[in-house]
Request: fold
Amino acid sequence: MRRSFAICGAFLLSSGCGSSASPGSPATPADAGSETPAPTALTLAAGEAVEVAVTDGVGKIRLATPTGTEQFVVVLGSTKLDRTSGSYAYSLALDPIDGDTPATKLDGCALTSADWSKVTPAAETPPSGTAPAVGTTRQLVANGETIDAKVVAVSKTAVVWADVTAAHPATLDQTFIDAFIKDWDDIILPRERQEFGIESDLDGDGHVGLIFSPTTYSTAVAYFTQCDLKTLAGCGAGNHGEFLYLTPPANIAPPYNTPNAMKEILAHETGHLIHFNRKVLRNGLNAWGDSGYMDEGLGALAQDVIGYQAGNLYVTVAGLAQLDTFSLADIVKDGAQYDSTRDGAMRGGAYLFVRWLYDRAGGDLANADGTITSKGGPAFIRAMIDDPATVEKAIGTTGKVVMADAEMDFYTTLAMSNRDVNGGVAPKNACFAYLPTVTDPLTTDQRGANLYASFHGQKMVGPKVQAASAADGKLRVGGVELLSLPATAAGELDLSLTVDATALPRVRIARVK
Reply:
């Protein structure tokens, strides 16, 4: 895409041996001369997770390790979700600790399907109109220059335009066009409408224009620009209609020049086209205030749920492998732009976050006839993009989600989900697991997220996890550090974390084996 310009429901695991002391306070001795009883180590079952109390940047926990083979992951998150940049220092010690170690068992979720599964997205009438005929020529603006374009194909819902400018004509053959245009009509656009709503029809022709020009590649393999639909700050000339810009296959290196790759690209960019209509045009806004990476996360979700998730899996790998460079603050904050130094990690992480929201709202059902039934996921996402507020704000207002809680639940999901397919255990709390992946009945591609999925001869290896004993001591603003903490002997394992309190830190412990 190109742009021009709760805490979970819980119960307290008291370590005070029957004391009525509040969390974080020591048990009161029976008399002045007695000693405070030694705190009892917290026993976590495999697949359970707890939140550790953090006071003035310090969190402590004593874990029971009766077999000496237990494995834990520490989830250290910064819930400072603002425009602050940089990182905060933290330190970790495995020395014996004193005093109570209160922790809250996590058996609820910041977002559930209770409300969203009951919502049926409104059915809407698609636009209709007369498309320009094959052979029609006109000038179009593409990549900041005026090109000569010609209609080379017209389908039920698309007009295919080829750049015929003498300096850079597009090479397109009918076989290539036929290979993707039918699925555009029968799968891509109908499913996009079911998932996200109806696109605009500014030019009144009832079709989406697909412009193939070699000049597109200087910007991206494909893009959508809102300047075609509304003149916003930073916009130059636009084409006053619904257009997507694509690079001809002859100008793309394999394997990204195939009809299937083109379908996935179209699914992504069409998601942006509909998002802009729902958020900006329908609400009469004069700016598209959503974060660029939140837009990309929704575009990646479109690739997934429309049924053409292939290249998206490589972006997911980047998000997992570079998790320590990711920040949810930089994903959700209004108006955030792209960061070329960590673009892959940010796109992958944005997809994983949006997919987590979609799953927790209830997900969907892909039917054999190609239709999509909302089980809560489409209803939630549609409400977020239809809300006149930015998606960041809508998650909290319309979605009724506390963002800091959602952030920690999401990061805990990255630590725990799909571990059972990699020698570990599944989380006992469904909040911390992506819904099971399924094979799309029409495209046969994977729908959904699996952090240890096998694909295209490769295998995901889950998120980046540092050894607690060799942690780098840097926590990005709004980011997360996942730290592996294996038991070394039968008995107990003590942990102390000290974090800069201005990071608004939260700490969780997940037992993954």
Observations:
- Residues 1-36 have pLDDT under 50 and may be disordered.
- Residues 122-288 form one domain.
